[in-house]
Design a protein that fits this description.
Blueprint (H helix, E strand, L loop, with lengths): L8 H23 L4 H23 L7 H33 L1
Helix pairs in contact: 1-2
Length: about 100
């Protein structure tokens, strides 16, 4: 009898297959000639879907309270935003130096 919160191997294989499919679609989209905005939106949607799958299945967050899930998600978003804000000025400076 499976315990509450126990995840079977089948769930991991299905998750891995879906993540692989998303990755292959993202690689394919990179080679296709589509408008830039459509490309960026498709990539963002795919990345968010992949992050959700990873968090829910591999980090076992689907069995946790909403408050813990929100803490993890907000913490990751704040950290990602902070890193982005700190890196962008250097990237802009380097781009200007190369021009």
């Amino acid at each position: 009898m499976a315990q509450k919160g126990a995840t079977s191997t089948k769930v991991y294989w299905i998750t891995w297959s879906v993540l692989l499919t998303f990755t292959l679609v993202m690689v394919w989209l990179d080679g296709v000639s589509i408008p830039r905005l459509a490309f960026v939106i498709a990539m963002l949607v795919a990345m968010l879907a992949k992050a959700s799958l990873i968090a829910s299945n591999f980090m076992h967050l689907r069995y946790e309270r909403v408050s813990l899930i929100l803490m993890v998600v907000v913490g990751l978003l704040v950290t990602g935003t902070l890193l982005y804000v700190l890196i962008v000025p250097d990237a802009v400076r380097i781009q200007r130096m190369l021009q």
